[in-house]
Amino acid sequence: MTKQLLDEFFLGLNVSITLFPEQSTRSYKTIDKFQEFIIKEKEFWQSVNSEVGSRFQSIEDQINNAIRYAESNNMSQAQSCASQALSLAQQNSWPTVYSKTAAAQFIKKQIQTNSARGDAAIYYLLRGQMPSSNSIDYFKGYVDAYIFEESARSFKEAAATHETTLTELHTDYQNKLNALDGDYHIITTSWNTEFNNAVTAWEVGVENFKGTTTEWRDTIEKETRDKLDRTLRELEQIRKTYTEKLRLEGPATYWKELEKEYNESGNRWRWWAVGSTAIFVVILTVILLIHPDSQFITNGALDVNSLRNALAFTIITSICIYLTTLFVKLSVSSYHLARDAKERYQLTHVYLSLLNESAVNEVERITVLQSIFSRSDTGLLKGDSGPTIPDSLTQIIKLLRK
């Protein structure tokens, strides 16, 4: 019952934790869930930074004290310990730093790379200090932290720019639509006035005139609605294309870089194959040209020594052939993977072009995305292949390559 009173007290606090150094928040309704969260933070930071780990250890100790006091019917002390734990967790300053933030993950990677770099990142990003140190690792840590901070800021600015562009596009479209709707009402109002005047002046032809005006009005309304529907479809297509571009821009860049890497790997293995072949040829030539009879025949007869020499020669030759074949296969595989990355890069841009022209249906779209993100064929295993690209897209890609 006393534990339930502590849960009710905790629920009444409306606990909301800001994940410092970011502004995102998390809410907790029970002290048990809050305790689980603090334990995970403590386990994360104990291997990263002892000062932060000690802070979360203190918070966990206060929570444990609150639960223990509640179980012994000392609610005033239980509430005091719970409040102290929340106060420490909501400090929003060093060393109360949460692992679910990008800065915390970056600091962990820096510490795993070099402890001095990690300390420099902590001072720069979280403590706002720059202690005097002539260590080159400290300097590198400051530079890495600065690049991380600027990259995060650039990403936010780019997102805000894209949002502003879409907002301006929507506003411009809405203004044009309002102007078109206003023109429509002005025209229909004007013709209705003329129609009423014509009824008074020419009563005999009123029915014919009314029918003509109604038909003309319906035509304008139909054309206006058709144009509106067409504009909405175009705007939706632009939105879809832009969304797909944002999704595929990163993978396309990755495949472009991967193509270069595989080409370099193919060239390296090719030179390994050429070099090893040349070395093996020289070795075998020396063996065969320098006293070949003494190596394989003793006193004109085949004995155990000559048989052993022949066996050794056969093993060396087999190893040479195997290594040369291995280097050639690795080179061919690298070139094959480079071509595969290049085709994925080109297929991504062709897909975006066709998507903008509404030339890809849903089935083909799913198949194309499976082709783009499928497992790559290394070329080393027989029968190893990925999904087939739709025939219509295959023909278009062949035409674009000409």
What would your notes on this structure say?
With 402 residues, the protein is mainly alpha-helical. It folds into three domains: 2-97, no CATH class; 165-239; 244-401, no CATH class. 79% of the residues lie in helices and 2% in strands. Strand 1 and strand 2 (25-28) form a beta hairpin.
List the helices and strands and how they pair.
Blueprint: H1 2-12, E1 15-18, E2 25-28, H2 31-46, H3 50-71, H4 75-89, H5 102-113, H6 115-127, H7 136-201, H8 206-289, H9 292-296, H10 304-356, H11 362-372, H12 391-401
Antiparallel strand pairs: 1-2
Helix pairs in contact: 1-3, 1-4, 2-3, 3-4, 5-6, 6-7, 7-8, 8-10, 10-11
User: Strands of the largest sheet, in order across it?
Assistant: 1-2
> What structural class do helix, strand and pairing data support?
mainly alpha
Rg calc:
38 Å
> How many beta-strand runs?
2
What fraction of residues sit in β-strands?
A: under 5%
SSE arrangement, N to C: HEEHHHHHHHHHHH
Transmembrane segments: 269-290, 310-332
Domain DUF6161: 218-386
InterPro entries: DUF6161
Protein name: DUF6161 domain-containing protein
